[in-house]
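Input.
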Amino acid sequence: MLALGAALTIVGTLIGRRVAGPTRSGTHLYVVALAGTGAGKQHAIDCIKSALIAARAKSNIGPGDFTSSRAVVKLLKRQPLSLCAMDEFGAFLRRIGNRNAGHFETAITGELRKLWGISFSRYDSAETAKEDSEAVECPALTIFGLSTPDEFYGALKSEDIGNGFLNRFLIIETGEARKTSRHQVATRSQHSYRPNYGSSFNQPHSACESLARPPAANWSRKLGSSGVQVPKKFIAPSRNAQTMSKMSNRGS
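Output.
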């Protein structure tokens, strides 16, 4: 499920500002993937960055965090089409929703709500005493947040539901946790496939044939001769048995 959320945001970013849905909505998304500790959330972030780099879209990789609403606007001016993979998203929501947070931190949710609804329209940034308002055509900001379920739901407040902030997110809860280490998985795979591949690592065609061949059909003769009972459906009939069967069918 982590891969599903990552794939949605990658594709949505690559075709962003180019493809529109039936209602002229853009392809940028706000996705939150919830998984337990040790489920490999960092791996999903690494895959997103690697995929965008391989697709020659390195410039569309956005930051992993925002410290203020001004930072969001600054990113849009520089990169209107961006994918921000944000780890510890629940902690991020807790920080910007804290009662002691500054004005520019709490204003982040307001900017994100506005940007989600702008697909092929114009976004005008706020004007301050030191900065003039600037227009951004067709902004497409995609967020892929990762968090544990407890931290994410614990950071939400009632106003996040009332003002529509939570409704803008596609929440994917995996319920997965890594139960084995990478070393254990690699060792297990190595022992599992070594008898099939043998020493022919440079012959993928032969390797595929050995994997596709039913092992019971190959070993049925040997097992049958050693006295081990093998189901008849796995035992290939001998040439003599096939000849006798044909003769009996002709006689009948």
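Residues 214-252 form one domain.
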